[in-house]
Design a protein that fits this description.
The structure holds two protein chains of two kinds.
Chain A lengths: L2 H12 L3 H38 L1 H6 L3 H45 L10 H40 L3 H49 L1 H6 L3 H47 L4 H25 L5 H13 L17 E3 L2 E3 L4 E5 L6 H8 L9 E3 L2 E2 L5 H7 E4 L8 E2 H6 L7 H10 L3 H6 L7 E2 L8 H14 L4 E5 L7 H18 L2 E5 L11 E4 L14
Parallel strand pairs in A: 3-10, 3-11, 6-9, 9-10
Antiparallel strand pairs in A: 1-2, 1-4, 4-5, 7-8
Chain B lengths: L1 H22 L5 H49 L9 H43 L1 H48 L1 H6 L3 H53 L12 H23 L1 H14 L19 E10 L2 E10 L3 E6 L6 H8 L7 E5 L12 E4 L8 E2 H5 L8 H10 L3 H7 L4 E2 L8 H15 L3 E5 L7 H15 L3 E5 L3 H6 L2 E4 L1
Helix pairs in contact in B: 1-2, 1-3, 1-7, 2-3, 3-4, 3-7, 3-8, 4-6, 6-7, 11-13
Classes of the chains: A alpha/beta, B alpha/beta.
């Protein structure tokens, strides 16, 4: 499918902004017409006036100057208003459509199964955002594309007043422009552009690596060495960049000189009175300007079709994020590689680091493919829908996985319809009450990315509070007291114990610290579990 | 761009001459040829001037970018920062902000210069043909400036605010997309999708309101540009008809009038180009804000002649982004073992960096007794959690800390830190790559320690030396540190109880 068809499909799916876009296109066409007409008629008027003036008073009397002079002023106003309308409506259309599309695409992406996505969330997110930005750019430039086309047509119409040959010449020279630009782009800028993009990524990775070792580099004064090491990459990047810029300069130069060529052609081929020639010459020049605008807007970025088809695929997906129906689920019996765990039991999962404890926990939570055999109520968890799994388990992961937003926002992720009292209770259990009270905005304090200004231990506790609020039959805890000092740890564990007793929630615990094990009655060493071959790449 | 204006004038002259020839019945082919030549040559002049000015701008921009990059690399990889910068952001600063500087140099700076010079040239040339037409251009320009002053700055401010809001929204979407696994786990997909929808729609509403005003300034540009053409056309026409409502100040001829008309659109063209480069200006200013604090010269006082005789840190604390690390009181002599402890994420590495003079503490002091200042950089060795590798042999990599070391010294140190198995298996001449493939985490850590030992520096700062190591390796490293502490001053950031047990003094973060 072409870029245009893909864009149209996505816009239709967005269901917003299309009427505005049509209006914007109409304005763009009108502005283009008015611009060319303004110059053409001005030239005609001025020349006719000169000829009439030179011919004598009678000619002046016969000359209808009111209409053209009024027309010229009118066209100036129309051009201004139409351009304003084009820009405003075009942006409006793009913004509205993109707002709807963002929601639509997010909803469909969210409905996917975490276990089945092979790309990690970070890369997938970056790709989707880039694709969305590319689409937004295309939609914003749509009206200008039509304006360019209309301008060309109108300029040919005006030039045709100077004869058929002039019109053909004008049409020919206008249609060559995009071809030339495409040719030049392919020869001069495509490859450097690709190289630049690739080299930039390499530079980024390389520099990040070194920046991670900043302290060491600073201590030993190694930065000249590092700069030396990176010099080949930088120089390669600079070389590609300079090639790209020079290529773009060439293309711009050709375009700027093209206008003279077009006007020269009309000059040679045109025939008619001086006034008609004046009109044709000025209209020809304006037409070339319109065409260069059109060409600039129709130059496709490489890879745009891939972006658009990715978005199209996602947009067409039938799976949409569904409302979470709050249901009380009864606890299921678990079986992990043959060991049975009854509802309400509290089990510690132990084993040396790297043995897959976190993997097992996340698999139970429905976030990863299982590497160890595990079953719920007799059915392997890989066969169960993610919804069944998440209704059983509430996870406080090793990486806290907090959201950008207020503390309240983060807590409310756990379940819909939570009361303030419940949020405060969860904060109390995880010993965050005092800390939250020191914040001027309390629970409404904004957290930046990944927990913002909270310390490691505070983030862990917030993540734990969130898991508690979900009120699922099983609690999955992965290193819950990491980053806590002994006193706070003891308090949190004690509160947790009470909470588990009161709610009868089952517990699966992974911890390298000893204190949390006071909660568990049994341990399941992971090296005793058979490992089946992992079915998804380990990130 | 001076030549561009001249090229435009040539074009207008060719057109004017040509049109006057069409009006003249006695024109001959030679004269037509001249008009055509003027037109075509003008195209060449404009093309050439565009190419040259772009290429010159590109190489000027290159110089600016190279200079900036040099300064940023020095600041980001060494020197003192006001607050820690994560590696991804550091890479983004040197690459993306560098490019923002470049693009501003290429697109905005020449455009701004042109917008100052070209209009003057055009007015001068127009005046040569018709003073009134030049007057009309000036007249519209003055009004344009007034309107710009009224609408332009307000629009610019709002547009900047909108850019910030748009960045925030896309940051929010990015965050939600990245955290989708946990969002799905808690069943919050639909709620969050709705929130995103609301935020997006709200932002688009606010943006449209801002744009209505922001686009007024560009509409003003369009209006006065169109008005200039219209007024000149109408004035010239009426003047040529002899129908002016006031006494004709000049006797216009067709070529003069047409020249003025053909040149009129060129007057506002530089300003149009400037408006088109506004985005580059914004990006450049944003880059300025990020880069300026980084490349400021360091004015902290360090006595370069004082030898290291120990260290006293009092009330040392670092604050940034609502985080507060410390305050910490720490004392160490010329040898000894101090453990700096605290839970993961509590800022131990940052505190160590502050002691090393790489991070500016918000309050407190570090002093070498008798020196009146902080320890010298050349007295501090850093044993990193993940030591950096450059292309070269293991020996060369260890010697990064002390390029004068002999082969024997290097080998001795390598053995003393427990790299014997590696040396036996692969020898010190094993080539390392930056990724360090083929070297285990423990071995890499030991190479870092070897560096610290080989450097001979009196103060050794150690960052989490036993992280991710098994028991045997951890005890090994602990013993190593103990031995080292007999000759050097050791400050070790760790939460490993095995290390803490060996320390003479424990400082809690």
């Amino acid at each position: 499918m072409s870029e245009r068809e893909l864009t149209d499909e996505l816009l239709a799916a967005a269901g917003a902004g299309s009427s505005r876009l049509r209006l914007a296109i109409a304005c763009a066409i009108l502005a283009s017409l008015a611009a060319i007409a303004l110059l053409g008629i001005s030239g005609w008027f001025l020349t006719s006036a000169a000829i009439a003036g030179a011919a004598g008073a009678a000619a002046v009397q016969a000359f209808n100057y009111l209409l053209p002079s009024a027309g010229i002023r009118f066209l100036a106003i129309v051009r201004t208003a139409a351009r304003y309308g084009e820009r405003l409506l075009g942006h409006e259309a793009a913004l509205r459509a993109m707002a709807e599309l963002r929601t639509r695409l997010f909803s469909r992406r969210a409905a996917e199964d975490s276990r089945k996505t092979s790309i990690d969330a970070r890369t997938a997110s970056a790709t989707l955002l880039d694709d969305i930005a590319a689409l937004e750019d295309i939609v914003m430039r749509r009206p200008a594309w039509f304006a360019g086309l209309a301008g060309c047509a109108v300029s040919v119409a005006f030039v045709s007043a100077a004869g058929v040959w002039a019109a053909i010449g004008q049409a020919a020279i206008l249609s060559i422009i995009p071809l030339i630009v495409r040719r030049l782009t392919a020869r001069l800028t495509d490859e450097p552009a690709r190289l630049c993009a690739r080299q930039a990524i390499e530079l980024r990775t390389q520099f990040s690596e070194f920046a991670a070792s900043r302290s060491e580099i600073a201590a030993y004064g190694l930065s000249p060495r590092i700069v030396e090491e990176m010099t080949p990459s930088w120089e390669a990047f600079e070389a590609s960049k300079q090639r790209l810029l020079r290529g773009e300069a060439m293309i711009a130069a050709v375009l700027s000189g093209w206008m003279a060529l077009a006007v020269g052609l009309v000059f040679v081929l045109g025939e008619g009175s001086a006034a008609i020639m004046a009109m044709a010459l000025l209209a020809s020049g304006a037409g070339v300007e319109a065409m260069t605008g059109f060409t600039r807007n129709s130059l496709r970025q490489s890879g745009i079709e891939q972006s658009l088809s990715r978005l199209g695929e996602l947009s067409k997906s039938r799976n949409v994020a569904l409302k979470y129906e709050v249901r009380k689920s009864s606890a299921e019996r678990l079986s992990i590689a043959g060991h049975t765990i009854e509802p309400g039991e509290r089990v510690a999962i132990t084993g040396i680091s790297g043995s897959g404890k976190t993997r097992l926990i996340e698999a139970l939570a429905g976030m990863r493919e299982a590497a160890h055999p595990a079953a719920m109520h007799g059915v392997e968890i890989s066969e169960l829908p993610a919804d069944r799994l998440r209704r059983q388990f509430a996870l406080a992961p090793q990486e806290p996985m907090l959201l950008v937003g207020t503390i309240e926002d983060n807590l409310r992720v756990a379940a819909p319809g939570l009361t303030m009292a419940q949020l405060v209770e969860a904060i109390r259990i995880t010993c965050l009450e005092e800390r939250v009270r020191t914040m001027p905005d309390g629970l409404f304090t904004w957290l930046g990315a990944e927990g913002g200004f909270l310390s490691g231990g505070e983030r862990k506790r917030l993540s734990l509070a969130r898991a508690l609020l979900a009120r699922r039959p099983w609690l999955l805890l992965d290193e819950p007291t990491e980053g806590l000092d002994a006193q706070t740890e003891a308090q949190v564990i004690s509160n947790l114990g009470t909470w588990l007793d009161q709610t009868g929630t089952g517990l699966l615990l992974v911890s390298h610290r000893p204190e949390p094990f006071s909660l568990t009655s049994r341990s399941l060493p992971i090296h005793a579990l058979e490992c089946c071959k992992p079915t998804a790449p380990v990130t | 761009m001076v030549f561009d204006a001249l090229g435009a004038a040539l074009f207008a002259a060719g057109l004017a001459y040509g049109v006057s020839l069409f009006a003249d019945e006695h024109a001959d082919a030679g004269q037509y040829g001249l008009a055509l030549a003027l037109i075509l040559i003008s195209g060449g002049v404009r093309a050439l001037s565009a190419a040259i000015s772009d290429v010159l701008a590109a190489s000027r921009a290159r110089t600016v970018t190279l200079d900036l990059r040099r300064k940023l690399a020095a600041a980001l990889l060494g020197g003192r920062l006001a607050k820690p910068i994560d590696p991804g952001s550091a890479a983004s600063i040197i690459i993306d902000q560098g490019e923002a500087f470049r693009m501003r140099e290429i697109r905005f700076t020449p455009a701004r210069l042109a917008a100052g010079i070209s209009p003057l040239i055009i007015i001068a040339l127009t005046a040569a043909a018709s003073l009134v037409a030049a007057g009309i251009l000036l007249f519209t320009f003055i009004f344009f400036i007034l309107v710009m002053i009224l609408t332009g700055t307000a629009a610019a401010r709002e547009s900047d605010a909108q850019l910030a809001a748009l960045t925030a929204l896309s940051g929010l979407l990015e965050d939600r997309l990245q955290q989708l696994p946990i969002i799905r786990h808690f069943g919050a997909e639909e709620r969050i999708a709705r929130q995103i929808g609301q935020s997006s729609r709200e932002l688009s509403r606010r943006t449209i309101a801002v744009l209505r005003k922001a686009f007024l300034s560009s509409a003003a540009l369009e209006f006065f540009a169109a008005l200039a053409v219209a007024l000149i056309a109408v004035y010239c026409g009426f003047s040529l008809l002899g129908l002016l409502p006031f006494p004709d100040p000049e006797q216009l001829t067709l070529p003069e009038a047409f020249f003025a008309l053909a040149l009129a659109p060129e007057f506002y063209l530089p300003m149009r180009r400037l408006a088109a480069a506004y985005h580059e200006k914004q990006m450049g200013e944003a880059a300025d804000k990020v880069v300026a604090p980084l490349i400021e010269p360091d004015i902290t006082h360090v006595d370069r002649t004082a030898h290291f005789s120990g260290l006293h840190a009092k009330g040392l604390s670092i604050q940034f982004d609502q985080r507060c690390i410390g305050p910490v009181d720490l004392s160490i002599g010329t040898h000894g073992f101090v453990a700096l402890t605290g839970p993961t994420g509590s800022g131990k590495t940052s505190m160590l960096a502050a002691i090393a003079g790489q991070l500016t503490p918000t309050s407190g002091s570090i002093e070498v007794p008798g020196a009146g200042g902080a320890p010298r950089r050349e007295d501090i060795a850093w044993a990193a959690q993940r030591p950096v590798f450059l292309r070269g042999t293991i020996a060369e990599n260890i010697a990064l800390a002390n390029p004068q070391a002999t082969k024997e010294e290097i080998e001795l140190v390598a053995l003393s830190v427990g790299l014997a198995p590696l040396i036996e298996k692969r020898t010190l001449n094993l080539q390392l790559s930056a990724t360090g493939s083929g070297i285990s985490g423990g071995e890499r850590r030991r190479i870092g320690l070897a560096r610290a030992v080989l450097s001979g520096r009196p103060l050794v700062l150690c960052d989490e030396p036993t992280a991710d190591l098994d028991d045997a390796a951890a005890y090994d490293i602990a013993a190593l540190l103990c031995k080292l502490a007999r000759e050097r001053a050791l400050i070790v950031a760790t939460h490993d109880p095995r290390i803490i047990a060996q320390a003479q003094e424990v400082v809690k973060l």
